[in-house]
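Hi P.,

Sorry for the delay on this. The queue was packed all week, but I finally got your sequence through. Input first:
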Amino acid sequence: METKKSQEFQKLLASVRAQFNLSNELDSRREEAEQGLSQHEQAFVEKYPSGSCLLDIGCASGRLCFALAQHGYTATGIDIAEKQIAQAKQIAEKKGIDATFLHYEPPKLPFPDASFAAAFLENVYCYITHRDARISFLEEIARVLHSDGQLFISQPILDAVFDNYEPIYDANYHQFATDYETLEEGDNFYLEASTYVHHFFFKDLKAEFDASPFQLLDSSVNVKDDDKVRCVLQKHVSD
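Then the structure:
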């Protein structure tokens, strides 16, 4: 029997899926497909030899996978938005790029243990509902990585804007929050819609990393340009 929390997990996740299946999101991601690796991504992947199996979680229409494949990596992208995956496949076929794209349903990843040398989770962690589910998802990512696998994660944070969560609870939040009983501190809705998103301060994000099978190796915050933190996480040696 489903609990209230699991029911609301599915409802909040559905709001994210619906958002990224919209035509304006598809158009935006199609334009992104022409971009290559960022300097941060390049610095992360250059430690892996050509042919290494790399996973992009929340790949949208495939921008990162296309760039990885063109650099000689075996790239796999997954996303909950089926229209994004369909578009990624179309672009890959048109460009003749050998990359794999799969639609999937959380929380389980559709891969055997130790399938990948490394994974990317870029601007995605904020769409996973509930703290315990996010930590469980990190455990699932660790499962599909090699014993020395690493995770590159980027995520917007609030540190440069606020010093507590209270200012994020605006009229848009109050309009939609009444539909849920299991929302947690930092949960919100954006784009004047019911699309779920979770906001982080870096200390809270790091606390979730610390509760997972990963240890934080490196982090950098770009407050000037995009208020994002970019982290490299390493599976614990004991795993």
